[in-house]
Design goal:
alpha/beta; Rossmann fold; 2 domains; 6-stranded parallel beta sheet; 15 strands; elongated
Length: about 325
């Protein structure tokens, strides 16, 4: 069969021949229909993700959509071993969910991973209640934009979307944001203080110095510092560490929580996927996807991101 193959950290994958998958006990082989290039996919392939245990060479890909021998369309997530960027892959069916046969594999492959980040954070990692208010830091990325929609679907009363890209930011009220804040400007702190000082939850996709400054702005302006503020750390596009202000933790009921691989038990995570898949397949979330033949994986991997469409590799041979 044909697959993508990464031969070393930091190298782009090559389109090459690969051995047929050899399923372990309890596994099944699926024909891969779509596998997206997620940030998680890239960081694992580079050997830089905290959950990475890979050895090179490796077939990249953390999830995908495939069809099993019985003709069942499945979304699947992979834990270890060969990834999803191949014509076929062995999966644990317990880490997969059946999809409607008319589901679009490209849309599901593009949307499940980024939508899962906020869905799991709000449904499993913390106690979120309809009527609460949410700030999404990094809302102009693919996952952040979906977080705005997920918060709306789950009943958030107010959603403040904060991001750097002015064009993408302007589109977020149509997706559920009740206010927007431009990050990286001289007015950012004042705008966050004005629009988000009283939020209940922060979904943070940026981290780094940006988050430290946002914490200071929110806590300083918070009208009732005894009101709980739950800060959920999900991504780190602005840096892997942040200088958390000690005063912010002491001067307010600020709780820092991480949400990611390892923080939610796998059975609990898998239990949430069918509902999220139903929403995705019914068009309940806006997903921008760009299908690319698997044969073009190297150019797709190295091309600059010019929009927020997620690249989805589609094997073109069987």
């Amino acid at each position: 069969m044909r697959s993508a193959l990464v031969t070393g950290p930091g190298l782009p994958p090559q389109y090459t021949d690969a051995p047929e998958p050899q399923p372990a006990d309890g596994e099944i082989v699926v024909d891969v229909l779509a596998a997206a290039i997620h940030p998680l996919t890239r960081s694992r392939a580079a050997g830089t993700h905290y959950s990475d245990t890979s050895r090179f060479p490796l077939i990249p890909g953390v999830d995908g959509v495939g069809r099993d021998a019985d003709g069942v369309l499945r979304y699947f997530a992979l834990d270890a071993g060969p990834g999803s960027m191949a014509q076929r892959v062995a999966i644990d069916p317990r880490r997969s969910i059946p999809l409607p046969d008319d589901a679009d594999p490209v849309t599901v492959a593009a949307g499940m991973n980024p939508a899962m980040s906020s869905w799991i954070a709000l449904r499993s990692r913390i106690r979120f209640a309809a009527g609460q208010s949410v700030l999404v830091l990094g809302a102009t990325g693919a996952a952040g934009g979906l977080a705005v929609e997920v918060a709306r679907l789950l009943g958030a009363a107010r959603i403040v979307a904060a991001g750097r890209d002015a064009t993408r930011l302007a589109a977020l009220p149509a997706r559920g944001a009740t206010a927007v804040v431009r990050l990286g400007t001289p007015d950012t702190a004042a705008a966050l203080a004005r629009e988000a000082a009283d939020v209940d939850i922060v979904l943070d996709y940026v981290w780094g110095d940006v988050s430290a400054a946002a914490m200071t702005a929110l806590v300083t302006a918070r009208p009732d510092r005894s009101r709980p503020l739950t800060w959920v750390q999900i991504g780190s596009t602005a840096g892997p560490t942040t200088p958390v202000p000690a005063a912010a933790l002491r001067a307010a009921r600020l709780q820092l929580v991480g949400s990611g691989i390892g923080s939610v038990p796998v059975p609990e995570l898998l239990a949430e996927l069918p509902e999220l898949a139903r929403i995705l397949t019914s068009g309940g979330l806006q997903v921008d996807a760009r299908p690319v033949p698997l044969a073009d994986v190297e150019s797709a991997w190295t091309s600059p991101a010019s929009d927020r469409a997620r690249i989805v590799l589609v094997p073109d041979e069987r």
